[in-house]
Amino acid sequence: MNAPVKFETTLKDWETDQEVRWCPGCGDYAILKAVQRTLPQLGANPANTVFISGIGCSSRFPYYMESYGFHTIHGRAPALATGVKLANPELDIWLVTGDGDGLSIGGNHMMHVLRRNVNIQIMLFNNEIYGLTKGQASPTSREGTKSPSTPLGSYDRPANPCAFALGSGARFVGRGFDVSKNLPDVLKAAHAHQGAAFIEIFQNCIVYNKDVFEDFAAPKGAEDRQLWLVPGEPMLFAKGTKGIALDTQKLALTVVDVAGDNWQDAGVLVHDATNRSLAHLLVEMPFGPFPMALGVLYDDPRPTFETAVIEERARSSAGKDANLAKLLAKGQTWTVEEKAQQSDGHPA
Amino acid sequence: MATSAATRPQDTDIPEAVVVRFAGDSGDGMQLTGGQFTLSTALAGNDLATFPDFPAEIRAPQGTLFGVSAFQINFGSREINTAGDAPDVLVAMNPAALKVNIAALKPGGLVIIDTGEFTKRNLDKAKYDVSPLDDGSLAKWDVLAFDISALTIEAVKPFGLGNKDALRSKNMWTLGLALWMFDRPRDPVHDWLRAKFKNKPDIANANIAALDAGHAYGETAELSGPIKQLHLPPVDSAPGLYRTITGAEAISLGLVAGAQLAELPMFFGGYPITPASAILHHLARLKEFGVTTFQAEDEIAAICAAIGASYAGQLGVTSSSGPGIALKTEAMGLAIMTELPLVIVNSQRGGPSTGLPTKTEQSDLYQAVYGRNGDAPMPVVSCSSPSDAFECAIEACRIAVEYMTPVMLLTDGYIANAAEPWAVPDPASYTPFPAKFLQEKNGGDTLLPYKRDAKGARPWIKPGTPDLMHRIGGIEKQVDTGHIDYAPDNHQAMTDARVSKVLGVTIPDQEVALGQPGGKLAVVGWGSTFGPIHQAVRRSRAKGLDVSHIHVRHIWPLPKNLGELLHSYDNVLVPEMNTGQFKTVLRDQYLVDAQPLTKTSGQPFAIAELETAIGRFFDGIEGNEGGEVSVNDTQLPSPELDA
């Protein structure tokens, strides 16, 4: 979105000379490739692109992107990115964070970057575990997750990243997973969105939380377990044999069978990404009884924070003279003359 | 008393300096009264210093002891450095204000009392069993007690206000009396009231009427005897244009000036905290100077956003007070590691934890110099007065930009709120230090983001610059390339480079503020203790004592000549409003036997306290029998000195 001029690059142009140090088989590799594949398609300019991250496995991401990059401190990337964006709104900023970085230590900043609507893309790699610190339960770990810090299984209820984002006031909520071929489309939609775009990316930590997403991410049976949301299209899955409808009595979503092409008769909803009420239902739609909702769950832009800051600055400065000498001598002043003193007692 | 020997009655009818304290309920508008009296005093050409002392509660229950708010001003026809020790005049608007403040009043001083507030209920709230007006307990002072409340209601009657609204003008009535007592002009207050109540002319006029009535009361009362008008001639100041300024204003203006000298837009990230918020408020109104202010979600976000702005090529600034500075600590480490310019203003207050939010202290020096994980060196500059704060803010900006480093600027609650006359500087008299941004690769075909210049600073590279893409972060950097590098030799080299860069910051040699190098005693201060130390040393020298005042602005790195200078004295005394933090630094750096004089009552040093402490070093010297100087108010000798 940010770069008005399309820049010609290839995937290779976005690779750095640094050795990638994630564990072999980590889902991060797939996400890295998906991003490096997407940026040339967006016509992004590496010099104008900034990747900003916090701390954790995912936050090593900037080192592998041949753009500007800032690997900050744990949880604070949204705050730092806000400063970068306000200082130079022309920069195209991608934030990389994880479930611990973005929702635990940095949950506060995540909430505020979303509610302020700073125009950046936020990729939250959710592997439901603390990887870099060797496998403790995270705020998104499912109840009962056994880890070094929860040997008998975790007992705190997990946070739902997309529900958190929506509740914080996000105007774009998307979802994908590391090896999905559709991930670039979600990234592109996020990039096209003017404002804070939140993307939850399920990421397989093969060392500490292996295959926790297999039940919907595995290629086999994916049709039955993934609902890819496309604005303007009916919410169909299982090769069009099932769909999502609204139970108007319970104000809840429900799975309906679709006979042939008659999804309309079955009451299947058409995805309206600007419908905030629908977005609330979709982010809360539990996997299991329902397929996993993926793609663009919500996309309804509002004016961005940096635009408001620029406008306020202009309004505040209007008609004022930025003369430092005058500013210093503002208010009531008096003059001490050579030898004799006197005061004028009037504003300068 | 404290202000000057000349205020003692036997010296002259017209004192050189007078200390007035306005005290009332926090709802009585004492800070406004004090502020306006200050302005009128400045316009009359006196030198002055003020000390606002108000409760942490926004609306403390009316009439209570803890709801008392006071404003002290010391003004005179000679140089004034402190708000004065003991007041000559106390204005007490209710029993609680009297109870809290009367002990400080100089014996023989004048206390003006509003008897209209001395009701049974208010006396109970102030924990008076018997009215002090009736029990003779005020005998050692001149008491001027009359019903200010009733007189105010009478004065504003033509404006048809209810009693409750009418009584709101009580502070203006009192101000009018005070203006008369010291022959101050009323016009500036009239102008101010008209501007403040532009849309409520009735309120403006009622307040003006109250002010004029108080003034007229003075004229009448003089005829009948109890009070006399006192005219203090203007101070002999250097020629030039003057205004009054508080420390918070001076820092804000200094930051704006610093950003201009660096030719950079300024980004200010802040979070509300007492007493630092005033800087955010000032800067929020100066957007035309290329200032962006950002009220962040917390202290950490405030500094991180400022670091982000510096990374993107602006001058990042953040500001807080002790507890907030503690929260920013990790991010300071990031700014040190990524070597980005940043100014961190710490308006110190009493601690630890929430401590004394509205009271002053200097207890964050360790935090500033040492308080980070890892070897994390950072320059520290400290302001000694409201006007000095302007210079220090510029200095902090200069060091940050020239050395690519975060800089901490220490001020405190006293400086932030206190006002003093300020010779308005000419911005053109400052040497610019324009920031330079790298525009092309600096290592032949490669970019070296951590290649240092002669000062040890790395290049500043703005994202958006073509062909200079690179990555930075908090992980240890490889020398020159900035790549991640955990190698032992590399960490040693980078630690050394960070330390030597900061130690190599060019700062002026230390000068002696009063006295001369060498001698019996040096009193070494830093920060807002300048005023009381300076006056105490001045008076001690007037008595013939061989004592000098050294005031250190650059806390880190310390001036190159400071060690040699300190060793040229037989004794070194370090007064601080903490438990001896700078003393420890001096001992560590110079193996000098620096003696502490500490105070952590939340109140600034009194001149008398310092004179006493100085006196102890001159036992048996003529003019100082018994090793003490004579003072007439409470002394708080330091336990360390007794030991």
TrEMBL record, chain A:
<feature type="compositionally biased region" description="Polar residues">
    <location>
        <begin position="135"/>
        <end position="152"/>
    </location>
</feature>
<keyword id="KW-0560">Oxidoreductase</keyword>
<dbReference type="Pfam" id="PF02775">
    <property type="entry name" value="TPP_enzyme_C"/>
</dbReference>
<dbReference type="GO" id="GO:0045333">
    <property type="term" value="P:cellular respiration"/>
</dbReference>
<feature type="domain" description="Thiamine pyrophosphate enzyme TPP-binding">
    <location>
        <begin position="55"/>
        <end position="201"/>
    </location>
</feature>
<protein>
    <submittedName>
        <fullName>2-oxoacid:ferredoxin oxidoreductase subunit beta</fullName>
    </submittedName>
</protein>
<dbReference type="InterPro" id="IPR051457">
    <property type="entry name" value="2-oxoacid:Fd_oxidoreductase"/>
</dbReference>
<dbReference type="GO" id="GO:0016625">
    <property type="term" value="F:oxidoreductase activity, acting on the aldehyde or oxo group of donors, iron-sulfur protein as acceptor"/>
</dbReference>
<dbReference type="GO" id="GO:0030976">
    <property type="term" value="F:thiamine pyrophosphate binding"/>
</dbReference>
<dbReference type="InterPro" id="IPR029061">
    <property type="entry name" value="THDP-binding"/>
</dbReference>
<dbReference type="InterPro" id="IPR011766">
    <property type="entry name" value="TPP_enzyme_TPP-bd"/>
</dbReference>
<feature type="region of interest" description="Disordered">
    <location>
        <begin position="134"/>
        <end position="154"/>
    </location>
</feature>
<dbReference type="GO" id="GO:0044281">
    <property type="term" value="P:small molecule metabolic process"/>
</dbReference>
UniProtKB/TrEMBL annotation, chain B:
<dbReference type="InterPro" id="IPR002880">
    <property type="entry name" value="Pyrv_Fd/Flavodoxin_OxRdtase_N"/>
</dbReference>
<dbReference type="InterPro" id="IPR002869">
    <property type="entry name" value="Pyrv_flavodox_OxRed_cen"/>
</dbReference>
<dbReference type="InterPro" id="IPR019752">
    <property type="entry name" value="Pyrv/ketoisovalerate_OxRed_cat"/>
</dbReference>
<dbReference type="Pfam" id="PF01558">
    <property type="entry name" value="POR"/>
</dbReference>
<dbReference type="Pfam" id="PF17147">
    <property type="entry name" value="PFOR_II"/>
</dbReference>
<dbReference type="InterPro" id="IPR050722">
    <property type="entry name" value="Pyruvate:ferred/Flavod_OxRd"/>
</dbReference>
<dbReference type="GO" id="GO:0006979">
    <property type="term" value="P:response to oxidative stress"/>
</dbReference>
<keyword id="KW-0560">Oxidoreductase</keyword>
<dbReference type="InterPro" id="IPR029061">
    <property type="entry name" value="THDP-binding"/>
</dbReference>
<feature type="domain" description="Pyruvate flavodoxin/ferredoxin oxidoreductase pyrimidine binding">
    <location>
        <begin position="265"/>
        <end position="441"/>
    </location>
</feature>
<dbReference type="InterPro" id="IPR022367">
    <property type="entry name" value="2-oxoacid/accept_OxRdtase_asu"/>
</dbReference>
<protein>
    <submittedName>
        <fullName>2-oxoacid:acceptor oxidoreductase subunit alpha</fullName>
    </submittedName>
</protein>
<feature type="domain" description="Pyruvate:ferredoxin oxidoreductase core">
    <location>
        <begin position="521"/>
        <end position="580"/>
    </location>
</feature>
<dbReference type="InterPro" id="IPR033412">
    <property type="entry name" value="PFOR_II"/>
</dbReference>
<feature type="domain" description="Pyruvate/ketoisovalerate oxidoreductase catalytic">
    <location>
        <begin position="27"/>
        <end position="215"/>
    </location>
</feature>
<dbReference type="InterPro" id="IPR009014">
    <property type="entry name" value="Transketo_C/PFOR_II"/>
</dbReference>
<dbReference type="GO" id="GO:0016903">
    <property type="term" value="F:oxidoreductase activity, acting on the aldehyde or oxo group of donors"/>
</dbReference>
<dbReference type="Pfam" id="PF01855">
    <property type="entry name" value="POR_N"/>
</dbReference>
